[in-house]
Amino acid sequence: MKLATALSERADLQRRISELSVRLNNNAKVQEGETPSEDPQELLKELDEDLIRLEELIRRINKTNNETQCGDQTITDLIAHRDCLKKRILIMREFLNSSSEKVSRYSKAEIKIMSTVSVVDLQKEVDSYSKQLRETDELIQGLNWTTELL
After folding, report:
1. Please, what is the average pLDDT of the chain?
2. Which of 58, 65, 79, 82 stands 20 to 30 A from 25 (CA)?
3. Do residues 18 and 29 touch, judged by C-beta distance below 8 A?
4. What's residue 106's pLDDT?
């Protein structure tokens, strides 16, 4: 099984487990004399099976990510780098929006508000980080489709 297939299955299991949780709660109580629309014991059995499979997949995905080398980095290293790039870009874009926001003055007597950074330089920096993010994400995706799950 390829790593990408395992990641897809993990996402499906996570969605299914979330749905099972809702279904369990919907069938937790019934009016006296009524029966639940689904058997909670069957739902709990399905939940148990899905959680066992999810645990196995997570373990194998993490092992694969930790042991698969790409140059001098592992997939885990690349994922950490990608996640931090995403966070950096998000924060920098918010800062860029605040920095480039125009403040209207109604007269020359009002205080003039100035940006504390060069908006043009900051935009170039954000663009550079965005390019790094795309390249890192493409590398990870490529590895996911070519790496066998351990």
Report:
1. 92
2. 58
3. no
4. 65
Rounded CA gap, 129 and 143, in Å? 21
pLDDT tens digits, residue range 102-138? 766 566 666 666 677 888 899 999 999 999 999 999 9
Q: Following CA atoms 111, 115, 116, 118 in sequence, which dihedral angle do they give, to the nearest 10 degrees?
A: -150
Phi, psi of 80 (to 5 degrees): -60, -45
Q: Per-residue pLDDT for 30 more than 80?
A: yes
> What sections of the chain are H helices per DSSP?
3-26, 40-67, 75-100, 119-146
Does residue 62 surpass a pLDDT of 70?
yes
Could you tell me the pTM of the whole model?
A: 0.80
Cα–Cα distance measured from residue 51 to residue 70, given in angstroms and rounded to the nearest whole number: 31
Residues 6+ apart with CB under 8 A from 143: 3, 68, 70, 75, 78
Q: Say how many CA atoms lie within 13 Å of 33 toward its Cβ.
A: 0
Query: And the tokens for 63?
Result: 């092992």
Q: To which residue do tokens 């009002």 refer?
A: 110
